[in-house]
Protein 1
Amino acid sequence: MGSISGSTIVLGGGLQVAEVVARQLEALLKASNYGGVKLLLEPVQPVDCAEAIGTLPRTLQALAFRLLPKDKAIEVYEYLDGDVQQSLVERLRSGEVLELVEEMSPDDRVRLFDELPAKVVRRLLVELSPAERRVTAQLLGYEAETAGRLMTTEFIDLKEFHSAAQALDIVRRRARDTETVYSLYVTDASRHLTGILSLRDLVMADPEDRIGDVMTREVVNVTTATDQEEVARVIQRYDFLAVPVVDREERLVGIVTVDDVIDVIQQEATRDLYAAGAVQAGDEDDYFRSNLFTVARRRVVWLSVLVVANGFTSEVIALHGEVLSQVVVLAAFIPLLIGTGGNVGAQSSTVVIRGLSTQRIQALGPWRTIVREAVAGALLGLLMLVVVVPWAWWRGEGPLVGLSVGISLLAITTLAATAGAALPLLFDRLKLDPALMSAPFITTATDVAGVFIYLQTATWLLNWLGMPL
């Protein structure tokens, strides 16, 4: 168990800090021990405070939040989940909410406004100070999920004529009001981005050195219209702590920091996983808080599409009813063939979608990728023939079933691997989400094609072996 000793939280039993704090926090609040609450929360990191408060009953969340010191409350608020933030907006007094929103960093404020009702956003915007209102309106004006919407305008910019000593003074004065001090940007009189240097470069420079002489002029940047996934790739590729954002006139307007990019990566990964499971995406992290009707609605859309698509499989089987009535044992191998085809297609689509996400697939190219997966599918089919064909031959008491299963298995695995690679690549070329062409869709497509190939092959072989239908 965790316990409070002075201002130290002691953990035991493998519990996380937030879990221990949440348990003790709820007990203290129910006992109206508000002094104990303040003592408990004082040494706890803001992110752990936010998690602990987020697990409390709604009636206690606002009370616990009010007991935080003002400066810490602002930090904690930015770490809270969106639904908890909304709940606090509704429960706190208007003045308290405005004070919180005013002190938030611009990018976090915009993310909050995206979640709040439009009427509340309009009211808060009007009540913000002119400077914060202008910045917030600017960020809200950019397209969703772009660098412009993701960036913060709190950064330190220097001029080439500044000395290193002057620049250090500027950093000291503005450090409290900026998102990060580790990356410093150099602009000209028109705010065009001309260079960049790290805090380390600045500290190591001679105090009399000009910034223009120690900065790096080749600056990697993104534009306000750059998609947030591309921003994440840039930061990952160059190991940046932040990347500068410029407008169409190449003027520096903001920066995107690595902590925001981590949120983007998590958000995009969640969406891809939902798409891979044929679940309609909602607010990425609210699935387990949603009511059952919402859960069912998100699933039923894609399931309905898949049910309709699987109806074609039933039609194919019905059209070949004559061959099945003549050789009933053929039906026993339908699940094996379509299951194998679905699994091979899902494997191929998974590796291709992942390759598109990480851009590793670019070195190989789309056509070579499809050919590579087709060959892999054929090899998998040949390997499985060694086990499946002798069994089918024995079970069918003759060559008809064994040959039908063998030929179909090879064709189905090759086709499934090809489709699993080609369909995500096609969607990517059409500027659609490749994750939509994931396991359920590939499985459904290969089911229809696999059953048709199998039963049509059996029909041909029956005629060839002199057993006309």
Protein 2
Amino acid sequence: MNGFTILRSVQHYVGKIRTIRNEIRTQRFMNELPLSIRKDIGWPDMYASGRRNDN
């Protein structure tokens, strides 16, 4: 394993962490919206159904 491979592995890991943090931040923001707005955009129903298909 050379240095370049290790660097790519670390970058991939950091990218995954960044993605997870962004998803958590978005979920918190969406959950703070008023109920009427959340219903209009289909939160969390639309999000939850999309997440189930990704796994």
Protein 3
Amino acid sequence: MAAGASSRLPRFEKSRFIGARDTMIVYDCDDAHQFARLETRLEDDGLLGRNLIQSFAPDTLAEARNRGFRSV
């Protein structure tokens, strides 16, 4: 899938930055490599079903870092 707004998770279509609470890592959904890693984690680790996914408001990397998340 090409990077950009079409590379977003269902239920999080408007969120560019998505955090995984178990590792405190934030993924940039507009980066194809990071989005692929996030999709793999969602499938393999069941993050969505375990309620371990977080979006941020405002939807910025700075806000994710402010909440204790770090970049991939």
